[in-house]
Design brief:
With 270 residues, this protein is of the alpha/beta class. Helices cover 41% and strands 19% of the residues. It binds iron/sulfur cluster (SF4). Iron/sulfur cluster (SF4) binds next to helix 2.
Length: 270
């Protein structure tokens, strides 16, 4: 049975093949997560809950939304597990970022009637080729139908950085999700890609032509070919290593001398 790929798996391989190997091939268990990932997950869950209420015709008040975040933060925060990478930044500052993201989103979207929600945390499965050899999956934060009838793929980002429009017009993640929603709505259905940069309170949109989607299928299949042909899975150190869950066992991060999972290739010289 062939492997099912995801955008995050592909990105992991592009950023660092060794990280990809740890996460997707060796299935190395991780005991910590970055505080950015922790806050991002909480914000996504709170927004999912918010739209569930909206779907039932009960728009929660802003203070209720923020209380939900605070409640889940208090229940789940474990300083031994949630790692702050940026030295000197107190944990509480990340809580404030989460609250700010939700407040800005709420004020921008209230009363949440500008579209119809068609799916929350919508799981999509699709193949890049007709034979089903290159299989993909993804989870879309929210799928909606806008007032102009266009199906929208919404994605929430809690990071501070907002990419340029040119970059988003080339973005792979939401374009792959478009391929996924096309299975449900048909390849002719017009689709809009929508990013919510919550911390910056910026919304960006983009769309893809059928030619661009065909090219994306080809590029992604070639990337999967590269992954499947890979044998070395060399570490590729970068500024992202600080956020990597495997840095304790990664040879270039000084973890080679600590006990770790056996890898199929010898570590490179440190
Ligand atoms: S610590 Fe850096 S080089 Fe090592 S696996 Fe993680 S991202 Fe790759």
């Amino acid at each position: 049975m062939s492997v099912v790929y995801s955008h995050s798996g592909l990105s992991s391989f592009e950023n660092c093949p060794r990280q990809y190997q740890y996460r997707y091939l060796l299935d190395v268990e991780v005991e910590t997560e970055s505080v950015e990932a922790f806050v991002g997950k909480l914000v996504h869950e709170v927004l999912e809950r918010l739209y569930q209420f909206v779907g039932e015709g009960r728009v929660p008040r802003l203070d209720q939304v923020l209380s939900r975040f605070d409640q889940w933060w208090n229940e789940r925060i474990d300083p031994a597990r949630v790692r702050v990478v940026r030295t000197g930044v107190p944990l509480g500052e990340y809580r404030e970022i989460g609250l700010r993201c939700l407040t800005r989103f709420y004020r921008r979207r209230y009363p949440f009637d500008e579209d119809e929600t068609l799916g929350l945390e919508e799981m999509v499965h699709f193949s890049l080729d007709e034979d089903g050899r290159y299989r993909m999956r993804g989870v879309i934060d929210r799928v909606a139908r806008a007032r102009d009838g266009v199906v929208e793929v919404h994605d929430y980002k809690t990071g501070r950085r907002v990419p340029s429009q040119e970059r988003l017009d080339q973005d792979r993640q939401l374009a792959l999700y478009q391929l996924g929603v096309s299975e449900r709505f048909g390849t002719d259905a017009p689709v809009r890609l929508v990013w919510h940069y919550l911390a910056a309170d910026v919304v960006r949109t983009s769309s893809r032509t059928s030619e661009q989607l065909a090219a994306l299928r080809q590029q992604t299949m070639r990337l999967i070919d590269r992954i499947e042909a890979e044998t070395a899975f060399e570490p590729r150190p970068s500024a992202l290593c600080g956020w990597c869950e495997y840095r304790e066992i990664c040879p270039v991060s000084g973890g080679a001398r600590r006990a770790g999972p056996e890898v199929r290739t010898p570590p490179p010289p440190v």
